[in-house]
Every structure is written in structure tokens, then in C-alpha cells.
Amino acid sequence: MAQSPMLSCPLKQTNEIDWIQPLKDYIRQSYGEDPEQYNQECATLNRLRQDMRGVGKDSAIGRDLLYRYYGQLELLDLRFPVDDNNVKISFTWYNAFTHTSTTQYSLAYEKASIIFNIAAILSCHAANQSRADDTGLKTAYHSFQASAGMFTYINENFVHPPSTDLKVDTVQTLIHVTLAQAQEVFFEKQVADQRKSGLLAKLAGQAAYLYSQGVEKMQNSVEKNVFDKVWTIFVQAKASHMGSIASYYQAIADSESGSHGVAIARLQMADRQSTTALSWAKTFPSSPPANTNLTAESWSSLVDLIKHNQTNVQALLTTMVKDNDFIYHQPVPNEAGLSPVARVTAAKAIPVSELYQGQDIQRITGPDIFQKLRSKWVTENSSRYEEEKAKLRRAENKNAEAASREMDIGLLKLELPGALNILKGGMNQEISADEEFCRWCSELAGHNSFHRAFDELQDRKAEVLSQLDQCSKQLDLEESVCEKMRSKYGADWSQQPSSRLNTMLRGDVRSYRDTINEASASDSQLSSTFRQYESDFDEMRSAGETDEADVLFQRALIKARSKHSKNKDDVTSPAQGTLLDDVYDEGGASVAEQIASVEELLNKLDLVEQEKSKLLTDLKNKTLADDITDLLTLNKKTIFGQETEFFQTQLQKFHPHQKILVKANHEQSRLMKELNRTYGKLLEDKRVQSEQSRYKSIERQRNSVKARYKKVYEAFHGLSSGIKQARTFYKDIGENVDSLRKNVETLINNRRSEGAQLLSQIERDKGMGENADIVRRNAEAFANNRDKSSGVPEQEDREREKLRQLMERLSTEPKNSSTLPSTGLAKPPSKIKSPPPPVQTPAYGTTGPSPKPSPRYPPTMPGVPLSHSPAPYGQYMGGGPGAYQAQHFQQGAAAPLSEGYNPMAYPYQTPVSPPPNQQFFSQTPTPYGGYSNSGTPAPGAGPQPSHYMAPQGYIPPPPPPRPQQTAYPPTTGGTYPSGPGGYAQSRQYGHHKTPSQSQSQPQSSSSADPWAGLNAWK
Fold first, then answer.
1. For the whole model, what pTM was predicted?
2. TM segments (predicted)?
3. 353 and 311 inside one domain
């Protein structure tokens, strides 16, 4: 037999819209972000809108596509207010029944229309199912209920709809019709399963009631031209038909229960209802309208079903009337006196929340398209929730740490679990050397003795002191020679006293010597430390090399134990029996049993601690993984203003962890109390107390041995570090003292060159003075003779010419010098000293090169102090002896002497040292500053004038170091005392001679050196 036809709701149609530009404008204005970053999201939403316009009426894919678009609209509504004031988009939809258009700017209208189409597709999908098999029947049953649930959602959530197909009466009509059809489908299943007549009557009665409710709501809609008349005819026919079926099955039930008269009355009612249904069916048009899924075939099927049911009713009625007339003779009540048929509801509207659950929602709706776009409210509250979770973690960690700390303090006080090893005989293992002692021995293995290092330091110190002694001797010799020459020549010896020039150098020598003396004190301390621990170093080094550190430790421990046993003879050997071997005869628990009890409690405490650690780790991971951003986004409207309550509700998911942690802390406290009681009882035993006392004694000995070797190990590292610093110190100070030696040699050479020139000038002035006296006397005699013999002009002329020639030979002035006005003779030289011409520096050997000027003590220039800061190195270097002699000489430099020496060969005046009563060359005093540090004056130096300018390129040297008394400080090449620190600069002095060459030059000098004859004055 053909299945009963079913109604389905038509779909609403809509026009195309553009989501992209309005959304971009709102993102730019409200969120302040670049809308171009959301091009893909806007395009995705717009494509969803276009796809859902073309879905079919009977399509599961279309249903899911509509639901996906609706889900994205719900998420969109949380971020974008779509209305006529913000995101303004015109939504145009056509009425599903009248096809009239309605336009709104509200997103709610768009969502209601989408939900309406989902419900329509579900009803169409249910009506088109073949209910001949269980699968189709179940699908139809579920889809009709789901459709009713969608219509119910529209009825409950969208008020004041703009179109008639969304009005309350229309939606309620659709709800009743779809539920009635779902009830009818379920009834068909029960008929096929041959259920009892009473149940079938109740199911059919509920379907008839729902159809009748639909008819009642539809009457108002028909008056408003919402539903077509065909809908009313079909629903009224179905209502009468299902009522007839309900009465039919109820009559059978009454007859089975013995109510034959009532059964006859119900059959009469069923016949009348079938007649009414058939009359409605006959009014159905031959061509149904397009807005229904009904066809002429479906209408004929309904008519056949009504006629078939009416035939069954009439046949049963005839039989029951005959039986009652001949057998039962029960009265037949009126129809008005019959009780209504009871109803059983088998179809209910499925809520939207139950229709798609869990993974189905994620699969159908997909991820939030605009999940990257979060409002400020969501971000702030998400951060607040993170802080709430952090507070929870901190509180639980604090409680767990407090309980663990209390346990650790208790175990430390009881000296557990280490004290159990004493009672169990584990003392022998405890006496062995630990890894730290073995590491100390391995570090000392292969290390050389410190004897060679100390010898090296002494050699370096002796070398430095030797250089300082040499500098002092050279300065003393130079000053002695200068003063002896001054005493010999008196005022003619105008060279500046040496004491005014070498004050800085002598101060540097003293400063370096003091530094060396201080370093010697530190060296002595290092040496004393080495002598103190030398034997220990050798023992540990040997033990490390032979891998016998444990043997050394045991030997030292035996010595300590033997020393201790002199005072206490009752100390037993660690190899004696343990307390586990003792057995009590008093009936109580033995020591072994009590120790086992303590160990069991310790194991339980350890398990509790591990459980707490795992719980805390799991709690941390879960709190970090808990993200309620989506919940905040989805429930913003309901949560707003109640954020704190919402946070507390969300935190309840962590309560199980908190309860277990609290329980673990209590269990830990209980175990500690029990452990104190059990272990305290064990310690009351006298033999346990004796064993503990013995172990503590041995432990003290072990600690003393380890402390002793730790002191040796630290002394070894202190010595290694101190010797390393001392080497660096002596290396740096050696370089500085070598620089000082070069400066002293430069000063000596310059002073020697200057003294040679001065000595030559004194001898020259002495000879010229004697010749001048002779000329003067001859001139006076000649004048007297001329007065006496004025008549002999020829003789006068000859005498005058002879005198003129003699004066020309002795004159040191140019030939065109002025003559005496009266005599016409050359003007004799005055007694005033003339500046000495440059002379050759005395040669200090026949094979070696001539000494060149030092950059530390440059040749003096007029108006510049004799000793000055170094000039650029290249200023003093020449291409060879010839080049050196051909260049212009600075002050103090020696020009080469020759037999034809001519004082006029040098057009400039050669300076000499100032007289003894004048300290400086220039008229304005300029104190010597060649050795003063830029920051701290050198020892013995006076205050440096503010107008003093150092030569270009001069770098003030650092002061020399003064070592500490206990250890050498780290040296960087610039931490020496002030004064001679300038010699630590890394400047090349390749033109200086070695000390041996400088000392051998005066001895091999030729007799032409006027300075060489003064060596005998030492």
C-alpha cells in the first residue's frame, strides 16, 4: 500500500550582497587595524553567502552549508554590530509563500531567514524519504522533529519579524504540521510492528490533535493570504483521517476489554470522521500549486488511504453491531458521551543545541573566520583569567612547598635517612674517600714542583735589581763628573747641575726598588706557604698519578683515629658486628624490625612527595592549556558584567587536583608524626645510642681529614695563582725598568755631548784670550813707536800690515767686520763668551756606530729644557753615519770635527747649558715634566704648570705597581707606581745600545774626546 503523503515548507529566496567593503571599513574605524590583513576572511564570508543562495530543497550538503553560514554569522555578531548605524548591509529576502520581498539592515533578519531555510530543507528531506524500510522511516522521523526545532528557535528568539512567513502564527503552524507528520511516521512504524490497539489509538490521537492545532493556526494565516488553500485542505483531511484511525483502534481496544457498546459508538464516530476526511480530499485541486511538494499522485494516494480506512471501519462496525445484537446486548452511548481518546506524544521538537553537538559543530561550521580579530574586552578578560589561574598555581605550589619544607626539616632533625645506614652497618662504606677528594688528587697529578718557579722569580727579581743598580751608578758617575768639572773650571763651566735633571729618574729608581721590595715580601709569603704544604702536595700528586687517592685518604684517617684513640680507648673497630645481628629476648620488636618500620614510613613519604610533584605538574599543564578566549567571544553578551563569577565557574574544573593535593599534604603530615614516634622509640635503645656515638666519632675524624686536604688543595690553587701573577708582575716591571735604563743612557749621552762641547769652548776661549792680550800689547807698542818715529812712514805701514794680518788670523768674526776708526785694525774680540759651535760627539770605539740621540732625552734646543718628553722616533734616525753627520743637528748633538774646523760653518748659535744660578734655558721657568704621569705626578716631581704642553704623540705612562702583602694582583701592564711608569709603554728603541756596549765605549774612546780624561776622577 502507498505511504501517506507529507507536506514540506518552501524555501525563502534572497538577493546577492557584498560583505567585504563594509567589514573592512569597520575594521579600520573601530579596531584600528589594517583591513587589508583580513582580505581572505572577508572574502571567505562573502563566498559562503553566495554558496548558500544556490542550495537545493532536499540536500544534506545544502543543510550543512546553511548551518555553517549561520554559525559564522553568530560569531560575526560578536565582533561586528551589523545594523543601519555600524556595518550597514541591506538584506533582501522573499516570502516563502507569497514571494513578496522584504529588505532589512538587521543581522537578526538574515539569521532568521537562514534558520527558516534550514527548517524547510529538513522538512523537505523528511517528506521525500521512502518509509518502506527502517532507514528511511527513521530519517523522516528525525528530520521532521529537527525541522520543528528550527521553527521553534525562530519563534523563541526572533520577535517582531518583518515578513509574514516569520510571524508567530505562521511559524507555530509549521511547528504543529511538522510535529504531526513526525508523530504519523512513528505511528506507521508501530502499526508495522503490530503494537497493541490501545497504544496505536493513543499515537494516532496525538497526531490528529497536532493536525487540528495546525488547522486552527492556519485559519488566521489563510485570512492573511500566507498559506495557500491547498495547505488548509490537506491538513484538515489529515486531521480527520488520523482522528478516524484513533477511534478505530480505540474501538478495538474497548471491544477487547468487553465494552462492546462503547466500541460500536467509537466505530460510528470513526466512520463519520472518515467521511469528513474524504469530503475534504475531494475538494483538492487536480493541479497543486508549486509552493507545495504535493502532486496529483500524492493526492490520490491520500484518498485511497482514507477510503481504505473507512472500509475497515465499516466492516468492523457491521460485525460488532451484529455481535452485540445477538450476544452482548449492551447499550450504545451517544457520541457526545464518549470520553476522548488518550494521547501519547512520540514526536518533540529537537532543539538546535542538540541537533549539532561536539565535533559536529566544529566539522560543519568550521573555525572562526575572524578568530584573529579580538575585541579589547575579550583580550583584557582573557588576561584576567590567566592571572586567576596563576594565582591558583602559586597557592597550590606554596602549600605543597610548605608541607615539603616541614618534612625536610623534620628529617634533617632526625638525621634520616642517613642515620639508618649506621644502624644497618653501612658505616664502612661511608668511611671511603668521596669523589671530591679524588678530584683534588687528580688535579694535582702531573703538576711540576714549585721550586723551579720560585727560582725563576728570584732570577727575574735579581735581573731587575741589577738594572736599577746600573742606572743609579750611571747617574752618580755623571753627576760626579759634572761637579768635578765645575770645581775645576769654576764659573766657566756653565752646564746645568745634574741634580736638577735626574731628579725624576732617581725617583723612578727608588719607586721601582720599593715596588720590588714589596713584591719580595709577597714572594716570601708564597715561599713560606709552599714550604708548609710541600709534603702534602707531593702526597696528593703521587696519589693522583697512581690512582691511589682512596689509599691516601684511608692512611690519613688511620692517623687521625690513632691520635684520637690515645685519649679514648673504647673506640671499637668499624668492622665489628651490626645491630641487625642482635636479637631481643624480651618479646618486643627487634632492632631490625624497628628499622624496617622506619624505612617503610620513609618510602611512604617519598611516594607522597612524588605524587604531589606529578599533581603539581599536571595542574600546571592543564591551567596553561586552558584557553577561554572562544568562550568569552561566544558568550560575551551573557558574561558582560559578571566576569568574576564566570572565572570562578571556569576554575572549578581544577578542584579535583586541589582536593588531591590537600589530601596528600595531610597524609604527609600524618606520616611525619608516625615517623617521629617510631624512630624515637628506636633511639631509646642503649645499643643504638652507642652505635650512633661511635659513628659520630668516626665521622668527625673523616671530616677533619677532608678539611685538612681541602686546605691543602686551596693552598695549591692559591700558590699557582700567586706564581702566575708574580711572573706577569716581574715581566711587566722588567720591561718598565728596561725602558728606564734606556732613558738614563739617553740622558748620560746627551749630557756627555753637551759637556764635550762646553769643554772645547772653554779651551778655545782660553787660547783666544791669550792671543788678544798679545795683540793689544803689540798695538799699544806700535802706537808708542809711531809717536816716537813719526818720520818713518814706510816702517809704520809695514808694521800696520803685519798687525792686520795677525788680527785676521786670530779673528772669529767675518772678514768684513768693522775696523777701529783710529787705527784701521780689526776690532779685537771681547771677553764675553760666544756660543760654542757644534762639535762632533766623541767616539766610543773604532768599530761600533756612533751613539744616536735617544727619544727619551732629545738634544736640547734653544729655549727648551735640556730633558724633555720624547720626540717622534723618526726624528733621530738617519740613513747611516754620513747621513747623520750631514743633517742639521739639534741642541746637544755633536758635529764632526776636522782639522780645518771653521766656527762660521754653522750660521745659527749653538746653545749651552744655563749658568748654575739659572735652572732653565728660557727666561720663563718651565719645570721639567718628561716623567710626570698625566694624572699623578711622578715621585720627586714638582707641580706641573698648567701651560705645559707635551710633545705631539707623547702618551703619559702608567705608574708601576706596588704588590700586596699576601697575593699578587692581576697585572695588565699598567698598574705600577707613578713616576717611571712611562717606561712601560711599548715603544721601540732599536737605536739604543745594549748596556754592555754603553759601558765599554768610554774605555775605548780616543784621545780626541775631551770627556774621556775625566774617568780617572771617579
1. 0.51
2. none
3. no
